[in-house]
Design goal:
single chain, 6-stranded parallel sheet, globular, 8-stranded mixed sheet, 40% helix, alpha/beta
């Protein structure tokens, strides 16, 4: 076999285009900024309309599994979709074997812990370096107690023991890597934000959106961009709304809890002030954020929390719990007196602390402006160009 190609990398990611989450966006933003590298990305075929192979820029996408046509929220657990996820480790391993033999990559890059299973076996078999990126945002209990994950936990631990390098997007996840058996020192490189897109938003576009949503020019506008799942804690913001009669809550996102959350808003009599606007295209996120007086998401767990960083970069003050990776960038003026404040912190599942944090922003204009300015400066270190440069340093060491 020929010598490894130092610029070729095989990537393992359970989902990818057209399914976008924080990890998938990170892969896209990093790879597009490293045009001198060539990436073969192995992902599950979760949508039967997606081709098994396509090429986008310097990324060749290989989809394995069965998928089904245009899955909706109610389809997520149907058999073909679910089977593609369960079989991703062995199918990704088999595809990797073919690509390794054909392309001679410099190393393998597994994004998320579950995706490291097939990568680790291939890396061991072919004696190729393995980089694991930890992006997982769920709690440890949820991560490893799901039915499709439990049989593979021992393989995930083995993958971390055998990994050449681990990159984590937060200090919290770096600690998780050590607890999973990684013998080295994890490298913390966070996800990034598109600072220019978030800062340079057409004011007319924001005004048109405000008019379309029929928002008042007065009062507090709470905004969130969140999957409607338990870990994001949206329920507790809705429960706070009766105590915040001056506020409107705009929820951008969708998920299995939507109907339940809509019922909760009705039962509390706040359905007119809790607005579900659905999932947004990436280009619409910045104008939506600019509508907000405050960005809020009282997460129960979070690997990093890119939505908060996007809000900070857009100049919108944030309210969040200091769980997981959020504590890397959220410093509360009362809880972290030795640091410049970048947001307001609340307790998990704590409605009174949410009410208090919203009111503090409204009542203390000087502190709110101080938080806004500090948050803007803090967000500058999360620019995707800087992040891609740091990832290139890791890639170069493994090549």
């Amino acid at each position: 076999m020929s010598a490894p190609d130092s610029r070729r990398i095989i990537v393992f990611s359970l989902s990818y285009d057209p399914f976008w989450g924080g990890a998938e966006v990170a892969i896209r933003e990093i790879t597009r900024r490293l045009p001198e590298h060539h990436f073969d990305l192995i992902t599950a075929r979760l949508d039967g309309n997606s081709p098994r192979f396509e090429e986008k820029g310097n990324v060749r996408i290989h989809r394995v599994g069965f998928g089904k046509r245009a899955p909706s929220a109610s389809d997520l657990m149907r058999f073909p979709w679910y089977l593609s996820k369960v079989l991703y480790p062995p199918l990704s391993f088999l595809k990797a074997c073919f690509l390794i033999y054909k392309e001679r990559p410099a190393f393998l890059w597994a994004v998320m812990s579950y995706n490291a299973i097939g990568a680790a076996i291939a890396a061991f078999l072919f004696r190729i370096p393995l980089l694991i990126t930890l992006q997982d945002g769920d709690s440890v209990e949820h991560l490893f107690k799901r039915a499709r994950i439990r049989p593979f936990v021992w393989l995930i631990r083995l993958a971390f023991k055998e990994a050449t390098s681990v990159q984590a997007i937060s200090r919290y996840l770096a600690g998780l890597a050590k607890s999973l058996g990684f013998k080295g020192e994890p490298i913390v490189v966070p996800n990034g934000v598109d600072l220019r897109a978030l800062a340079e938003v057409d004011t007319k576009e924001v005004a048109d959106l405000r008019a379309f949503l029929k928002l008042s020019e007065t009062g507090t506008i709470l905004v969130t961009t969140s999957r409607l799942v338990p870990k994001n804690g949206i329920e507790y913001v809705i429960r706070a709304m009766p105590e915040l009669p001056e506020a409107t809550f705009l929820i951008a996102g969708d998920g299995p809890l939507r109907a339940e959350l809509e019922d909760l808003a009705r039962s509390l009599g706040v359905e007119e002030r809790v607005r579900f606007v659905g999932a947004l295209a990436h280009k619409d996120v910045a104008p939506f954020l600019k509508l907000g007086s405050v960005f809020i998401r009282p997460s129960l767990s979070e690997g990093l929390g890119i939505s908060f960083l996007e809000a900070m970069a857009a100049g919108v003050p944030i309210i969040a719990t200091q769980v997981g990776g959020i504590s890397d960038f959220l410093h509360d003026p009362e809880l972290d007196p030795g640091k410049e404040p970048t947001g307001r912190a609340v307790e998990r599942k704590d409605v009174p602390s949410i009410v208090r944090a919203v009111r503090l922003y409204a009542e203390d204009a000087a502190m709110t402006e101080r938080i806004r300015a500090n948050a803007l400066r803090a967000a500058e270190s999360y620019d995707w160009n800087l992040i891609a440069g740091r990832m290139k340093e890791i890639f170069d060491k493994l090549s």
